[in-house]
Amino acid sequence: MSSVIITDLESLLASSEGTPYLTLDQTFVEFESLITALHDEVEKSRYLVNRSQTRSSRAPQLQLLEEWSLDGDITRFRQKLCVVPEVFAGIAQRIGGHPVFFNASNNPQLPMPIQLTIFLNGAGHYGNASTTEDLAEWAGVSVGTVYNCFRRVMIAILQHHDNTIHFDPMEAKDQEEIHRAKVWVESKGCFDWWNGFLCVDGSPFNLFQKPGWHGEGFYDRKSRYSLSSQVSIVHHCR
Q1: Which residues pair with residue 228 across a beta bridge?
Q2: Overall pTM > 0.70
Q3: Which superkingdom heads the taxonomic lineage of this protein's source (predicted)?
């Protein structure tokens, strides 16, 4: 905060006590002006914490993704983003032209591929691995930047929802995709699971205490004892 403004405030307080000619209205007007100046000073500074105390404890690791992609290390690439490089490139191509990634500010945004990278890393993990603090440290950015990346990428992706997330029975490509999915499901399970290709979801039912028989087997990732239920949405068209 500017020392000049503080000095002006102290001078005003001293003059208001020793000068009988300074009216009460004038005092309030000058106080209001100084308060406005203080407010503007805070708005300009924006960051009131010592930056040296909030730096990332390690170097960002974004550059490793390009290295893994070029070296063909798809496993490590997928561990971070949960997609292969070709899928990443396809998503980036679809959303790259969205106006949310452009602004007229003197402080430009991060490149769109980096914003998508941060989003996919967070969307593909859960628990402590998906906290904004962990993502900020991994990418070498601030927590606020992580939030902005998530918001912009979601805005861009949702615009393509109706064009990409659907099955059109009149489209040959969609029918081929359905058939490939059914073949894959059957190869991993059995013929009776042929139609279970669209969606599988589950929900745990918490138990009031640890079961006496194989109790540790009921201990889940949320540190609770529970029974898992699973619902499959199938497409009965065969």
Answers
A1: 204
A2: no
A3: Eukaryota
Please report which residue ranges of 46-142 form alpha helices under DSSP H: 62-71, 74-81, 85-95, 112-123, 132-139
| Nearest residue to 153 (alpha-carbon basis) of 68, 219, 96 | 96
Alpha-carbon span 172 to 224, nearest angstrom:
46
Is 156 exposed, middle or buried, given 0-12, 13-18 or 19+ CB atoms closer than 10 A? buried
Paired residues of 232 in beta bridges: 200
Nearest-angstrom CA–CA distance, 146 and 130: 11
Tokens representing residue 99 in the block: 């106006």
pLDDT tens for the chain, 238 residues: list them. 455 555 555 565 555 555 554 555 666 677 777 788 777 777 666 555 565 555 545 567 787 888 888 788 888 888 888 888 898 999 999 898 899 998 887 788 889 999 999 999 988 887 666 788 888 888 888 888 999 999 999 999 988 887 777 777 777 887 888 888 888 877 877 777 777 666 666 778 888 888 888 888 888 877 888 887 766 655 544 4
Residues pairing with 206 in the sheet? 226
3-class SS of residue 201: strand
Crossing angle between the packed helical segments 112-123 and 132-139, to the nearest 10 degrees: 140
Instruction: List, as one string, the DSSP characters of 59-74.
Output: ---HHHHHHHHHHT-H
